Records
---
Amino acid sequence: MADKSSGQIDTVMREERLFPPSAEFVAKADIDSMAAYETLWNEAEADPEAFWGKLAAELHWFKPFETVLEWDEPFAKWFVGGQTNVSYNCLDAHLGTERENKTAILWEGEPGDERSFTYKELHAEVCKFANVLKTLGIGRGDVVSIYMPMVPELAIAMLACTRIGAVHSVIFAGFSAAAIADRNGDASAKLQLTSDAAWRRGKQLPLKATIDEALAKSPSVEKCVVLRRVGNDVTMQEGRDFWWHELMAEASADCPAEPLDSETPLFILYTSGSTGKPKGIMHTTAGYNLFAKKTFEWVFDHRDSDIFWCTADCGWITGHSYIVYGPLSAGATVVMYEGAPNHPDEGRFWQIVEKYKVTIFYTAPTAIRAFIKWGDQFPERSDLSSLRLLGTVGEGINPAAWMWYHRTIGGERCPIVDTWWQTETGGIMMSPLPAAVPTKPGSCTKPIPGVVPAIVDDDGNPVAANRGGMLCIAKPWPGMLRGIWGDEERYREQYWSTVPGMFLTGDNARCDDDSYYWIMGRIDDVINVSGHRLSTIEVESALVSHPHVAECAAVGRPHELKGEAISVFVTVKDVEPSDELRDELKAHVRKEIGALAVPDDIRFTAALPKTRSGKIMRRLLRDIASGNTEVGDTSTLEDYSVLAKLRGEEE
Ligand code: WTA
């Protein structure tokens, strides 16, 4: 039993199954044994600067760096004195090699249209658009705000910015005008990129109309470039708005990549923190590029014959690092899909896997739970035999969902890489290297070479094996954020003030007897019941292993006697919600975990409220569970009707 004051967290989840990779998978891999992984990790740990300094030779340097790392906590400078260019590393580096005519992007639109670009073709498009940016007065350090659908031009725009040293701020195309204006203001964005509309489940999302509203409140934005994607009517403001295709028609394809200092800002990406105000996470050039490339190669065991599909949107860090920068630096072929997984039906993803013979598939647990709910008939309709490796990111994956992914999608032959990382970390921090580290369902297993995690209690002392604590990173790594845009104080305070000398991730974790890491949710997702601190994810895992639970979220609410009570929100499958089912679920949790974790109340709901990136809105659920009338900021709610439904349930 944990002592409450020590900051330790009780753990009740035990997962004993171990899944080693098949001999066939191992035979083709570079890092092909636990010993090989450990050698690499130990080498990095013993001398990180030598380790990263050596790997940095994989990037193109206009000017070699002099110092690998200057660390003045909490400010890191990597590859000081050197000059490189991310767009060069992603494109030019492959020209004149056998990858020149290799496909870089295989794109499919939601209506079924297709386009593809070889590295050479992509290079030409990026050069042209970089020239367009220049004619619009964009240069080094200028911030370009991008609000676009998942079309190739989104990647082209990002790469064009990096080519000339402009800083992009991609805003997910589901955000409201107010949210865009906030972000544009915070970043002092100078140029806006958008499209007429986007396709979403067969409907048109009027992006340009939203941008018109946002730009009315974005005084720093001078001009706006509009891509014609859908063909709907839009208002073009004379002198401010320009058509993408008209500018491109006149642009030259000659635009050499500019040599940029290693620490040149590369992009800003806004993410939500513990307060309502979004933080502009800032990444820079050389360190981020190297980290995205190496983590891509290591974690996905990338071979030149692979077809890699990451289903994220470029509006999130996963799209930045594993659709654009990591894979393209590694010369990979990526699939990019514009639309929803359930359009025209719930089998769309599996049709795409079959059609493009996808070999590596990387998605989020929230999507996996949706697939489970939709039923096995959809994946069963498609030939998924091209797949050789599966991945997950974004939240913990419940062992039950992991097993479904393993069996139904992976045909029991594909290793699963459960990748733990954050917008702040730039790239994957913990994940099995698939041919080296046997997996345990629900565990992100081990740190990537060069990553040194630590789990500490409230006093900053390391906790023992199997005890939960705050997950920190003990040493700087090349992909780390360099700050919060325009807010040094918040950067120090948020990440570097809680545990001396360490980066605070904001997640809880535990390490088991085999030194496998288990993420236990955010620090504020801890429920304290009668002096037991429980992680919400553990309660959820137990519930999701019940055959009639599709998805669930557990939160704490104040309770007179226990301190906190456990409140869970459940969406069911195959049966109607009933009091009997409620009792059955309580009994199930009691059986899976023990009496201390039995939920005090179970609410059935048609759907859980989610942010646009698919994260369950726990703050809102906590508010609902504790009966507060005032709910927090819900501007990122996917569907407001869910809130109303949940409130109806309460009465
Ligand atoms: C959570 C997404 C458990 C975690 C790349 C983290 C995970 C936050 C996992 C970052 C995982 C991400 N297992 N939890 N494999 N991956 N998380 O910034 O709480 O959108 O701190 O970056 O997602 O979310 P972000």
---
Amino acid sequence: MSVLTENFTLANGLQIPKIAFGTWQIPDGPKTYDSVTAALKAGYRHIDTARAYGNEASVGRAVRDGGIPREDIFITTKLPAEIKDAKQVRASFEESNSLLDLGPADLYLIHAPWPWSQMGKDYRTENIAVWKELEGLYQAGQVKAIGVSNFNVADLTSLIEATEVKPLANQIRWFIGHTQDETTAFCKENGILVEGYSPLSTGKILNNPDVKRIADQYGKSVAQVCIRYLLEKDVLPLPKSTTPSRIVENADVDFAISAEDLTFLDGLQDTDS
Ligand code: A2P
């Protein structure tokens, strides 16, 4: 069975396809349109975008032209990290939805706990106010699920303590050698699905000889072992490619990595250097 037809279940019961097609750094226009079209053709049913990627309109056009019923496709988009004024949340959500033109997104995330130019700065108070706006959208049924991205344990704790709805997902940078153990464990304890972006460490891991040795044993590519590794850890991978054959390859991951090999992969470090 293809993993593309399998789902994780969010804490609110919503089914979310286990592999997402990531679109970060894919330029708007034909590149995004063609990649998303190839992903849909390959069987992906979960597309991840963001207002900040600037490619929502092309994602939406590819999904509309793909002819697959909207309810069979799961769309994630994100509130820009720079928006920390609660009053601006709804307008940005509506802008994303109008660019996508697919009806409301299924999952809406706060893109980061701080504006990118101020990474690490304390915006906890603002994030609570922004999150309450997301809660409002969720409670009014305007979006099926809400969550965050790039949040660490302190960011998550302050949000959970001050608000009603726990984030349903936290999308973080996650690959062999970069497994964010503390945040991942906290999310699992709190019923927050971990989604892993850059599962191929944006390509750097692909030449790693240790992962290559494991991949050879299974007759799989390094990319496939990297993506399967996330699934073995119940982390939702968001591989990204603009190459149709790789798009297919990255979802062809219906195999199991043995406990022994997982332990070996758990011990790898500096895989993106
Ligand atoms: P391309 O888009 O040219 O196919 P990540 O998902 O960690 O962000 O990594 C994305 C990068 O990895 C892109 O540069 C992409 O290149 C490359 N990539 C994606 N899938 C594969 C694959 N199966 N084999 C080799 N490179 C891949």
